[in-house]
Recover the amino acids of this structure.
């Protein structure tokens, strides 16, 4: 049957030329169909440990990470993406080429145990192919991109969608991590997944089940963020066998590309000279505005507040201070006397420092009784020790 025309394209691995340990794989991919390839850790592991095959007991399982890029370029081509969840998981190259052409992809594997590296080359040739006219995108909530890329899971999902579409002639066009489309990182709990968008295309028109997505009833049911999640597919349209492959009915979108929009007409070219538009008419100046309220609010009010605060501060500093007489009255008489003695003596010494010709203050005199003011006769010697030592019989060693 013409409708049953085979849409099955196999990625043809044409040659594996091992030159200097660098394997090269060739793929032919039709434009507009999903390409996916699993980078197996075991194959790279055997590149690291060529001898381990000889000793079957000694199987290595090192963490390996992959670095993928277009040859001679820093990054992958726009259409190709790479994902690897963990160094102990396989990596995936996937994407949908939209223009024909050949890309040479360099895959470097780094052994995180020994830091050995090895390289493989992938030559991916995208060949021209008609874009499938009817496409639809589905959201699978309970999946993650690495879990749907293995071919077995892809065919499970495809089988469900084939029954929903009512045709075998169905191809997977794209698979996208929901995080790449603005989804949220799920909580690290069981039962929370990132979600995957799967886009499929067919030559056949949409089935009645799919067309019900366009009905007003569908949009009514699905409006409201919380209700949308619980809406089930209409009766007879629920085809998912494996719960984790079930689609979120409200996030289904149809793309009818069978009537491509006519390209917009080419712009008509003018002479290249602008027409004369008359004289320049400057716009009216805007109405004048009263700035006084703004001035009051921004200048006067803060100024008044500042003045009030400084007056308050001045009052507290100058009028509310405890005076010296008040403090003196509170102080114990003996302590006050002691304090005055120190104070007067300090004054006397200061006075002496500035004027050495005047009479020495009383306190500077030896043997002055501060209570009575009585003076002893000064000693004849001017060699007066500051501390009068007790007379000791063996004081010969003391300096004189
Ligand atoms: C596939 O999905 C990615 C990510 O959303 C997008 O950038 C790309 O254009 C899609 N390709 C096709 C052919 O729809």
């Amino acid at each position: 049957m013409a409708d049953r025309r085979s849409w099955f394209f196999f990625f043809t691995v044409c040659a594996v030329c091992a030159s200097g340990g660098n394997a090269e794989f060739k793929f032919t991919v039709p434009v507009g169909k999903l390409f996916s390839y699993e980078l197996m850790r075991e194959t790279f592991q055997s590149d690291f440990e060529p001898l381990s095959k000889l000793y079957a007991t000694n199987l290595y399982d090192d963490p390996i990470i992959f670095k993928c890029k277009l040859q001679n370029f820093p990054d992958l081509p726009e259409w190709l993406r790479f994902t690897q969840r963990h160094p102990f998981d396989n990596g995936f190259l996937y994407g949908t080429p939209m223009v024909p052409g050949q890309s040479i992809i360099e895959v470097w594997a780094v052994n995180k145990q020994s830091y050995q590296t090895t390289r493989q080359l992938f030559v991916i040739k995208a060949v021209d192919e008609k874009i499938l006219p009817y496409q639809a995108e589905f959201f699978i909530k309970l999946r993650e991109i690495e879990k749907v890329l293995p071919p077995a899971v892809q065919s499970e999902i495809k089988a469900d969608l084939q029954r929903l579409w009512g045709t075998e002639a169905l191809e997977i066009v794209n698979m996208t991590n929901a995080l790449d489309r603005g989804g949220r990182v799920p909580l690290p709990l069981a039962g929370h997944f990132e979600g995957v968008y799967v886009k499929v295309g067919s030559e056949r028109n949409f089935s009645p089940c799919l067309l019900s997505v366009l009905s007003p009833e569908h949009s009514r049911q699905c409006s409201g963020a919380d209700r949308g999640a619980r809406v089930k597919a209409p009766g007879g349209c629920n085809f998912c066998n494996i719960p984790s492959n079930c689609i979120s009915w409200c996030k289904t979108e149809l793309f009818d590309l069978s009537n491509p929009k006519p390209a917009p007409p080419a712009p008509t070219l003018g002479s290249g000279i602008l027409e004369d538009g008359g004289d320049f008419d400057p716009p009216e100046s805007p109405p004048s505005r009263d700035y006084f309220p703004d001035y009051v609010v921004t200048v006067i009010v803060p100024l008044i507040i500042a003045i009030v605060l400084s007056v308050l501060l001045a009052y507290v500093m100058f009028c509310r201070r405890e005076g010296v007489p008040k403090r003196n009255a509170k102080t114990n008489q003996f302590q006050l006397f002691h304090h005055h003695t120190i104070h007067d003596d300090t004054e006397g010494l200061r006075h002496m420092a500035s004027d050495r010709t005047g009479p020495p203050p009383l306190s500077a005199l030896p043997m002055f009784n501060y209570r009575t003011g009585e003076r002893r006769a000064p000693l004849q010697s001017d060699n007066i020790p500051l501390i009068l030592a007790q007379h000791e019989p063996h004081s010969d060693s003391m300096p004189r």
Notes: The radius of gyration is 48 Å.
